[in-house]
Design brief:
Rossmann fold, 6-stranded antiparallel beta sheet, NAD/diacylglycerol_kinase_sf, cytoplasm, nucleotide-binding
Length: 253
């Protein structure tokens, strides 16, 4: 079975060398003509590739040439066609962020892992949190807060002591970073179809920035987030090494 493959690589030298070797052995086509896209790099490059190719039909198969590689498969020059044929597919819907800054400008971005709000000054941020139009937390004093997908639950969310979510769950995790008030608030699990809104209190005194998969907006006054069911990212994994297995394994290390 022939496979038309588009090889994309990060700027790292190891990824560029890997791409040259793979192209020499398997050939290469433009992404828009590919049956599958192979991304060479780390998780950051994988996210970048998913964003840049989201309008294309081809799934993305990552091979780790970076550091973490949670979304990646092991790199190996040999047997790629057989691995692609046997690969298992995971489908992920991204988060859609709509942020408004102090000047009233609206910024939109998509996030596969998480949307986070972080204090941008010396004082803690003050955030009001609403879910589906209802205020659920009048004031959260913290270094920041984030909303993540199951795919992103082992990234920044897990470092902030948020829960790991099974990949097939229709749930989002809302997690605070260094919550000061309420001190014992540990976050919340929300339905995937929930719309979450953060309103920044005292934005002039306590500036806040928003980040959607490294797409940053400075001096936000409000951020609204929802899961975008109209966009689906197709990711391929070697059998037995998919996101479900990785999410479980991560909890026992």
């Amino acid at each position: 079975m022939s496979q038309r493959i588009a090889f994309l690589a990060s700027e790292a030298q190891v990824a560029q060398v890997a791409r040259e070797e793979l192209v020499a052995r398997y050939g290469n086509v433009p992404p828009e003509k590919a049956d599958v896209i192979v991304a060479l790099g780390g998780d950051g490059f994988m996210l970048q590739t998913l964003h840049e190719t989201q309008e294309l039909a081809a799934p993305v198969y990552g091979m780790n040439c970076g550091t973490v590689g949670f979304l990646m498969n092991e790199y190996n020059l040999d047997g790629l066609i057989d691995r692609l044929i046997a690969a298992e597919e995971e489908v992920i819907n991204p988060l859609s962020m709509t942020a408004v800054d102090e000047e009233g400008t609206t910024h939109e971005a998509l996030a596969i892992n998480e949307v986070s709000l972080l204090r941008a000054g010396p004082q803690a941020a003050k955030l009001q949190i609403s879910v589906d139009g209802r205020v659920r937390l009048e004031e959260l004093v913290c270094d920041g807060a984030l909303l993540c997908t199951p795919a992103g639950s082992t990234a920044y969310n897990y470092s902030a002591h948020g829960p790991i979510l099974p990949i097939g769950s229709d749930v989002l995790a809302l997690t605070a970073m260094a919550a000061f008030r309420p001190r014992r608030w540990r976050g919340a699990l929300l339905p995937k179809n929930a719309t979450v809104r953060f309103d920044v209190l005292q934005p002039e005194k306590r500036p806040v920035m928003a980040d959607a998969d490294s797409r940053q907006v400075q001096n936000v006054v409000s951020v609204e987030i929802r899961s975008d069911a109209e966009i689906s990212h197709r990711i391929l994994f070697d059998p037995g090494h998919g996101l479900e297995e990785r999410l479980i394994r991560e909890q026992f290390v």
